[in-house]
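ARCHIVE RECORD
Type: protein–small molecule complex
Small molecule: zinc ion
Source of inputs: curated submission
Record status: active
Notes field left blank by submitter.
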Amino acid sequence: QALRDFVTGLPKAELHLHIEGTLEPEMIFELAQRNGVKLAYASEQALRDAYAFTDLQSFLDLYYAGASVLITERDFHDMALAYLRRAHADGARHVEIMFDPQTHTARGIDIETVFAGLASAMRMARDQWGLSSCLILSFLRHLSEADAFETLAQALPLREQYADLWIAIGLDSAERGNPPEKFTRVYAKCRELGFRLVAHAGEEGPPEYVRDALDLLHVQRIDHGVRSEEDPELMQRLIRQRTPLTVCPLSNLKLRVVDQMAQHNLARLLRQGLCVTVNSDDPAYFGGYLADNYTEAAKALSLQPQELGMLARNSIEASFLTANGKMSLM
Ligand code: ES4
Ligand code: ZN
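STRUCTURE (tokenized, with ligand):
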């Protein structure tokens, strides 16, 4: 409890969080009922019991199924506000939220509905709790680059209306077989438009994907990146450039990227001088929110208070906040 209180008290940012991954079974059932959506599971407990993942894909199948209950602007608002309340309670001062518009537009939900629901919750959290947040629109890498371009075209008319929030582009979903190079052109376009860029790489995929995310997509941060350790040259580059890695300990454990938390390389990466951060990824599915990720990693890896402080400090450094506390596009 002393450890948890210490962690909660650290001023920090959450930089790797999929808002669709914050849908708890309770809310999935509540929204299903509200919207008349049929679920493949008889109860919240039956759904929870299905959360026994063997790899990334086994998780993604349930994650996309869970998101099918999101229909109205209010649904997106309620989901985001519940997460923001929890992040605030965990001591987050700033959060950068990924969302997957293609998961919703493919079901006939307008992208305007998604933006409006998320934004109203984010503005409420800023006004009520002083918790700042921004949006990272993420492309699904199992879909085509043409589909990503189409999604960008649907979102761009909303850019001005959400200029205080939507400042970055991300890349997520099934990594293996969907390398960064598949999205070179759409990332070049997003870069031209002045967006900040991040991408998942080196979670299940090889260190080459991390290198290509840097060289071909020109990302400023790597989401996960834990497999970078397999390439010493890449490691030296990440240290030299101070490229942030947004590491998600409980996610890596639940998706079997590591067999045991004690085997996680978070502490090694930190002690070698990388700008590593701790994040929750999909907290409703992986068994813990931001403070749980710090606490579980600290226990398993014997992280010292000073090291927990460094992780929190890194999260502020790696965020898209600028010196005046505001987000900025350039
Ligand atoms: C994700 Cl853990 C993870 N990896 C890749 N894509 C994702 N989308 C949501 N969670
Ligand atoms: Zn992720």
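CURATOR ANNOTATION: The longest helix spans residues 111-129.
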